[in-house]
User: Which sequence fits this backbone?
């Protein structure tokens, strides 16, 4: 089970956002982060817990291993307000967290 | 351009069937494992099923095992999901997605989505 916190994060543009994801058992660094904007499909941001996908801005960074993971957005831009999901891929079934919504403060 | 385009969604009564299809383009389809992921309204994504590039390895979530069948036609760059015995809880947007496989391989579930389609809505009511 993947548990994300907080459920909603209110942040002002230009500020840092820190999102958490906890796995119910150790998953090494088999963790991905996705961004989903309203009405759109998710988009891969991070895989291997810390590797940015192609085209993802450097303000997005991931860290963690084992059971505790963090996605940090260093300076929020208007286009970053969205819902973020983590997903473990340490074995079947693949499982997602319930999401953290980042909205404008 | 790399693209996945789903079709086949719609409104169906409980107990009914639907067949979803996904047309892939812009990449060498048979080289990649593929998956279906669904998302109920207001909920997080839920993995449904996956299969290897050859179609020889297939995986299902417990919630759909015995009711859904995933398949692919590599000659046509198509992915399919046959859904039988549909229930209200199957209502969701269904996404076709391309998988990246890590060093432990697909048998170990070492795989994440690197490309999503736009999705197709399945409503069971």
Assistant:
């Amino acid at each position: 089970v993947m548990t994300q916190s907080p459920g909603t994060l209110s942040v002002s543009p230009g500020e840092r956002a820190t999102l958490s994801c906890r796995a119910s058992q150790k998953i090494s660094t088999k963790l991905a982060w996705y961004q989903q904007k309203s009405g759109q499909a998710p988009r891969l941001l991070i895989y291997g817990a810390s590797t940015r996908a192609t085209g993802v801005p450097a303000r997005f960074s991931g860290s963690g291993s084992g059971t505790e993971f963090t996605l940090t957005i260093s300076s929020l831009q208007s286009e970053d307000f969205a819902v973020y999901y983590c997903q473990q891929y340490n074995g079947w079934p693949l499982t997602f967290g319930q999401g953290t919504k980042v909205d404008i403060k | 351009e790399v693209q996945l385009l789903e079709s086949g969604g719609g409104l169906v009564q409980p107990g009914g069937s639907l067949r979803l299809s996904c047309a892939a383009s812009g990449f060498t389809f048979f080289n990649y494992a593929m998956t279906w992921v669904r998302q109920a309204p207001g909920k997080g994504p839920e993995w449904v099923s996956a299969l290897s590039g050859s179609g020889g390895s297939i995986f299902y979530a417990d919630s759909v095992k015995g009711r859904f069948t995933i398949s692919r036609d590599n000659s046509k760059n198509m992915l399919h999901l046959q859904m039988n015995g549909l229930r209200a809880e199957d209502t969701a947007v269904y996404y076709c997605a391309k998988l990246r496989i890590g060093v432990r391989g697909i048998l170990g579930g070492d795989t994440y989505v690197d490309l999503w389609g736009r999705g197709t809505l399945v409503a069971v009511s």
